[in-house]
Amino acid sequence: MENKIKVLQLTDAYHPTVDGVVAVVDNYIKQINKTDACDVACPTFNKKSGFLDKEDFKVLRCRSVKAPEGYRSAVPFIDRKFIKTVKNENYDIFHAHTPFLLGRKALKIAKKQGRPIVATLHTQYHRDFERVLGKRNPLVKFMVRFISKLYKKADSVWTVSNRSVSFLRQYGYHGDVKVIRNATDYVFPENATELIKKINELHGLENQQNVFVFVGRMAMYKNLKLICDALKILKDKNVEFKMLFVGGGFDYDELVEYSKTVGVFDRCIFTGNVKDRELLQGYYLRGDLLIFPSTFDMASIVQIEASAHKTPAVVTENSCSAEQIIDGENGFICKETSKSYAEKLEYLCSNPSIMKTVGENAYKTLYRTWDDLGKEVKEAYKEIIKEYKNKKGKN
């Protein structure tokens, strides 16, 4: 029987925070623990949140400090207990989903213990730095150089889409990159009609035509103003529609106010955070289209979740979200303007059968489960461990 491996995932984004990276890490752990062993290292959280770790695997919490936009950043160099615990667990491979202090500490431990480390790029960090620090701030270049060191020294570098490889090149990494696309654990529900009815009753959408949905963190950098501006064009043309903004986030209030400013608040429904997974399925099912104009996301899980419910996405050209989309076949592509989105939406509202057909094609071509991804990840880990041992043996 093949020996089991023991893996440690390291991330600065973890519960009680909810985002795409958290979903990825959670599902990596879930899949690996089916046959092997996997734990997670992550920041401590604000105890006032009332959150408790109740996982059946080890959650190694590292002392942390506040980070921008509601996140926490682990500071392992002031947490000896945490470092000692990680070292004593004797992991076979480390997987850093953060290039910051936690990832850098994992790199040092891995090299000292003679273990390989994988580093995954999940986000456009340079844009994060520019947004928080300002585009002309010299600290932006410093931070890019800082994070690049992890990727340059890692034994294997992964990312989540082909287009995101270019960001690694911008950060100065020019080695091999493995693309591991994200997935979902949703399946098309047997009670789809019932879930749609529930959303209709909850929001008064019975017989409502042209229901659009955006799911995710309410962050204006995801082009949320563009959505509102496009909706305003449709409204002025007397196109009937309703827009569902599903989720919460640090820009939630700003988005609500902007919808009022441009005059589309009456056509929008803001749900806030939706923790009920079945209810979230209802929103995907009720939407005729997922509107996702973000050029920031590198591999949006919500796009895959929408495809699991046969809901096609409208995305921006040359974005990572458009990478697997063939316009008019398994999704729709627009230029990054409110006019382009409005024109596409107006056309589709007049041709509802196209949305249905494209939604079916999205389900066939874009839908991918974590079970499929889990097998791919475990095989990759074992190959990396094998190659690392062989390389050490030759040195």
Task: Describe what this molecule looks like in 3D.
By secondary structure, the protein is α/β, with parallel strands linked by helices. It has helices spanning 20-32, 80-88, 101-113, 125-133, 139-153, 165-170, 192-203, 224-236, 252-262, 277-286, 301-308, 338-349, 352-365, 370-394, and strands spanning 6-10, 37-43, 59-62, 64-66, 72-74, 93-96, 117-121, 156-159, 178-179, 211-215, 242-246, 268-272, 289-292, 313-316, 332-334. It folds into two domains: 6-183 and 370-394, 3-Layer(aba) Sandwich (Rossmann fold); 192-365, 3-Layer(aba) Sandwich (Rossmann fold), CATH 3.40.50.2000. The protein is built from 14 helices and 15 strands. The protein has a seven-stranded parallel β-sheet, sandwiched between helices. It has a six-stranded parallel β-sheet with strand order 12-11-10-13-14-15, sandwiched between helices. A two-stranded antiparallel ribbon has the order 4-5. α3 links the parallel β6 (93-96) and β7 (117-121). It is globular. The two termini are 28 Å apart. The mean pLDDT is 95.
